[in-house]
Amino acid sequence: MRYKISSNEILEKDIVNILKTTTIKQEPNIPFPQANDFEKVVDLLGFLNDSELEQEEITLNFSFDQRQAHYYTRAAKYLNLVEKKNNKYQLTKLGNKIINSDFKDKYLSLISKILEHEVFNKTLKKYFNDNNNISKNDVIKIMKKSQIYNSKTKNFEKLSESTIERRSQTVLKWIEWIVKQIYKND
Q1: In whole angstroms, what is the distance from residue 50 CA to residue 113 CA?
Q2: What percent of the chain has pLDDT over 70?
Q3: What is the pLDDT of residue 185?
Q4: Is residue 172 part of a domain?
């Protein structure tokens, strides 16, 4: 008998396939993420896989200040991987399923969750279409044309220039994280 050992290697074609097949969903009524280090979102999911945590426990576990802890829990909520019940954060059913998948499936599922959001989807498409290059100005243009929830007005409308500028950095960093998954095993 022949056995094929599945590879944990994520290839560019895997990500391009996700990009082609992922349906963009309506933005949630959650502020657009301001959490530049996506690996910390992954780590948060791992912590929540072990137990439900209060905001203060997340702050202590990650050596965050309160504001940073809020940014990362909101980012996980934005992706529908975490929810808050009785003042504690816990994985959603989907978050639990993803975090307990094998390496490749987990990371491809996380990439898919990111790419369900218009800004990230369009930015990665532009990145691949422009010979693996994207600028902050490109991201800002995409963000200005996209539906983004404005937490100040509790509506889907344009964010201020300064907010778009700050959030564009998160978009760039998450796209960078996605692309790094291709080269992780090199």
Answers
A1: 22
A2: 94
A3: 55
A4: yes
Residue 7 in domain: no
Nearest Cα to 128, choosing from 113, 110, 115?
A: 115
- Whether 3 is covered by a domain: the verdict is no
- Mean pLDDT of the chain, nearest integer: 90
Domain holding 45, by residue range, is 12-183
The full 3-state SS of 57-90, as one line of letters, equals: HHHHHCCCCHHHHHHHHHHHHHCCCEEEECCEEE
**pLDDT (tens digit per residue) in 65-98:** 888 999 999 999 999 999 999 999 999 999 999 9
CA angle centred on 66, ends 60 and 67, rounded to 5°: 140
User: Is 179 a domain residue?
Assistant: yes
CB burial of residue 146 (10 Å; 0-12, 13-18, 19+): buried
The total of structural domains in the chain comes to: 1
The pTM of this model reads: 0.91
Task: Provide the strand spans (E) within 45-92.
Answer: 82-85, 88-91
Distance CA 180, CA 20 (A): 19
**Matching residue, tokens 């978050």:** 95
Residue 37, pLDDT > 60, answer yes
